Amino acid sequence: MKNTMLMPATVALLLGLAFSPIIMAEHGPGKGEGSGPKMMHGGGHGPSWKESLTDVQKLKIKKMKVDYLKVKYPIKARMKTIKIDLAVLVTADKPDQRAIDAKIDELLVLKKDLLKAKYAHKIAVRKELKADQQVLFDKHMLNKAKRKKCRGHHP
Hints:
With about 160 residues, this protein is an all-alpha fold.
């Protein structure tokens, strides 16, 4: 019976979290001047693939990015919901391991879907580039893959 009392609060919390990725995307870190790889990693090493884009390419890639975000945000919102569900399940008086495992499986499917969408987007962007731009893009992708992923701001 304790879980039914949590339902209205949980629903309100979930609704708030469902829209937080959209809000963070618009106002989150990394937007505006003074951000980006050149500022974060001590300056650029030659031209970036983004700097070499034509106006037509930029427009096409922006549209592709919007399409990708329309896939990404609902998945991320659902992932947040599942993480909250997991926290509620784990903190129950008698945690149900089967229900927890099912939520974990659901979360992993969403992570896989998100990765597939992310890399399909990258492939689609790469197809829009000329050969010399693809070289810059490939270099960027390989350098990004080898870098250690850090979160937050570091001096």
